[in-house]
Design brief:
Blueprint (H helix, E strand, L loop, with lengths): L1 H14 L6 E2 L13 E2 L8 H9 L3 E2 L1 E2 L17 H14 L4 E2 L15 E3 L6 E4 L5 E2 L15 E2 L1 H28 L3 H15 L2 E3 L2 E2 L3 H21 L1
Parallel strand pairs: 1-2, 2-3, 4-5
Antiparallel strand pairs: 6-7, 8-9, 10-11
Helix pairs in contact: 3-4, 4-5, 4-6, 5-6
């Protein structure tokens, strides 16, 4: 479908040069110049190729959905909670600036009692909780009009924690650069050491720390280093 995609992108750019084109595909040379934001599925992320496109001015995200499965992290109910969180540490380490997720309330059936997500025709199994991060506010229909927001899941909260971890890491990155710029080598070393520990939690997208206690230990080091650098500044 590449020829069709290239023509589609041309038409959009002709209509408005300010529009940016996102494609759920890994960087492929025939599409260079037609795509602004590459969003490969996580197991198709190739660091060398993606960073080359970033150097050329493109943006890189990634996504998970009904795949990939272990050893990669994903948002399935039956995966450890650290899986839902560690993806955002991967974002920081590899310089990936976005996460795409296809749906949060794919309620084709009662998500409280039937956790296995299925396609709308019921023939394809997606995974436990795939596309369902939020739940109906009541477990059973009451027959009465109800105006109430959805209930979140542990996975939703872990994703939030991961995003906040990402913010911590980016803030410490910036604080270390500021310390270097002002010649404060001691504080720069403290911040760099914490970032090195953080980077050690993620080896590849399929090889990462599984022990949440170690994650919390490193997160504390990052927080303490960040506090010292910001207060000093």
């Amino acid at each position: 479908h590449y020829a069709m995609l290239i023509e589609e992108a041309r038409l959009w750019r002709e209509a408005d040069r300010g529009l940016r084109v996102l494609l759920t595909e890994q960087p492929e040379e025939p599409l260079f110049g037609s795509v602004d934001i590459w969003s490969p599925v996580l197991d198709a992320y190739i660091r060398k190729n993606c960073q080359a496109r970033q150097a050329a001015g493109d943006e890189v995200w990634w996504y998970v959905c009904m795949g990939p499965r272990h050893p990669f992290p994903n948002n399935f109910i039956d995966y450890p909670a650290i899986d839902h969180r560690i993806l955002h540490w991967m974002n920081w380490k590899f310089g990936v600036t976005g996460v795409l997720y296809w749906q949060t309330m794919f309620w084709t059936q009662d998500p409280w009692t039937k956790t296995m997500c299925r396609s709308e025709d019921g023939k394809t199994l997606f995974g436990n909780g795939d596309g369902v991060l939020l739940y109906p506010s009541v477990r059973q229909k009451s027959g009465k009009t109800l105006v109430e927001g959805p209930l979140d899941s542990i996975r939703w909260e872990m994703i939030r924690e991961g995003i906040e971890d990402y913010d911590y890491l980016r803030l410490l990155d910036d604080a270390v650069k500021s310390a270097v710029d002002r010649g404060d080598a001691k504080l720069a070393r403290i911040g760099t050491a914490a970032l090195t520990d953080a980077g050690g939690l993620v080896r590849t997208t399929a090889d990462y720390e599984k022990d949440p206690r170690k994650l919390y230990t490193v997160r504390r080091k990052v927080a303490e280093a960040l506090e010292r650098l910001i207060v000093k500044r």
